[in-house]
Design brief:
Helices cover about 30% and strands about 20% of the residues. The protein has 7 helices and 7 strands; from the N terminus they run ββααββααβαββαα. It has a 3-stranded antiparallel beta sheet. It has a two-stranded antiparallel sheet with strand order 3-4.
Length: about 190
């Protein structure tokens, strides 16, 4: 499934998509915008996609994340290879019968708009320690993705090094850090 580019310019720059209210932040910086670096043709799946199919797509496309979109193209969630591992395989689920919608990260999904300044998108990535941001229109239609790799490929060293250090910092929801004595590996 491909996603086409935005139809109109957005008036606001970043938001957390949610069913009850949406926090939005006005764009603050001049210069590069998310639309200048984002990937416009994004591979996405629906909530009903079974995990084996989603995993095949992740492998085939050599990506680590799949946006979950409703049939109308609106963003519903994000499925990562980690979601499949931690929320399905590690829980002992029969992954042949589990859907992407059952294990994906649901709303609120952190998103930005095409008109968001690149510096603001970097700040969102740092603050929330995420490596990828879905790009949506005002109608929550998925129109692209911005990844840390996109920023690294097009930014100066001062800009991307700070983002990389911050999003890679241990902690947060998905930490696998050992909380006791260190164990030697065989």
């Amino acid at each position: 499934m491909s996603v086409s580019k935005a139809k109109k310019s957005e008036s606001r720059s970043a938001r957390t998509s949610g069913q009850a209210g949406q926090a939005r932040v006005r764009s603050r910086g001049a210069g590069a915008r998310v639309k200048d670096l984002m990937t416009r043709h994004v591979v996405a799946v629906t909530p009903a996609t079974l995990l084996p199919e989603a995993a095949r797509i992740l492998k085939q496309e050599d990506i680590g994340v799949l946006p979950i979109v409703e049939p109308d193209g609106s963003l519903r969630g994000i499925l990562t290879d980690r979601d499949i591992t931690v929320r399905a395989v590690a829980e002992g689920s029969d992954v042949r019968h589990v859907t992407a919608g059952e294990v994906c990260t649901h709303e609120p999904v952190l998103t930005v708009f095409p008109e968001t300044s690149l510096s603001e998108a970097e700040a969102v990535m740092r603050r929330h320690r995420v490596r990828r941001l879905p790009i949506v229109s005002d109608e929550r239609q998925l129109v692209g993705m911005l990844s840390l790799a996109d920023i690294i490929q097009h930014a100066d060293a001062d800009s991307w090094q700070g983002v990389l250090l911050e999003v890679s910092r241990p902690g947060g929801e998905h930490t696998q850090r050992f909380e006791g004595e260190s164990a030697a590996l065989p």
